[in-house]
Please model this.
Amino acid sequence: MKITIDFPISLHVGIIEYENLEGGFWKLNENNKTFNLKNLPEEFNQEGIKVAILLKPEEEEVNIFMSGRFYEVISIKKID
Model:
């Protein structure tokens, strides 16, 4: 018996960066792959901090930034 589960949440480890484009937004850089962050908690609005983060892709792929898909932050933790 084979069971398939479609679960769009994924775990990532990377560095927080700020993109100064169209008003600006925060993103995660994980080994040169970027994830645009929709609702990053304010205490993590710091460039260069390393985090472990659970992300869920937004259903809407179109946004004003025209820089790729945005991801909803489900959980985040600063790591050393």
